[in-house]
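Workshop exercise sheet. Pairs work together: one partner reads the sequence aloud, the other fills in the structure field after running the prediction. Swap roles for the next sheet.
Pair: D.N. / O.F.
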Amino acid sequence: MARIKYSNDLKGAQFARGKVNEAPISPKHAVEIGRFINGMNLENAEEYLKDVIALKKAVPFKRFNRNVAHKRGLEKWDAGRYPQKASQVYLKLLHSVKKNAEYDGLDPENLTIIHVSANRGMRRRGFMPRAMGRATPKDRESVNIEIIVEEREE
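Structure field:
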């Protein structure tokens, strides 16, 4: 597998970053979660994603919201979903970014997410079995996600 570079090359004492390549999740869910958590405190984002996995809070879908039902509890938006699988990948990535920040000497309680990038990865060829011994081709999607956090005094 080729090495993929970061899209934003911020380096310095107050930044930490993390990346996940070829995560087997929906690109639409990854983009919507990334758009939502961008600008949030790292601790608040982790708590919110844990509530999404527990089906207590929904992620607002602002771009990919065709035929998406209204969800209760969303502020300033009505359509949303509970992308559990993508939220688990984001939680692992946030945990990794937090550990990277601790290694760099940053305070993990004052970290703010300043950059989230989620884009489509490789497509793997798959097949869906059908009746009478046939099969239908079905591509399996993947996503590349990167997060950059900055230490800010609150």
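Discussion prompt: The first helix runs from residue 27 to 37. What would you look at next?
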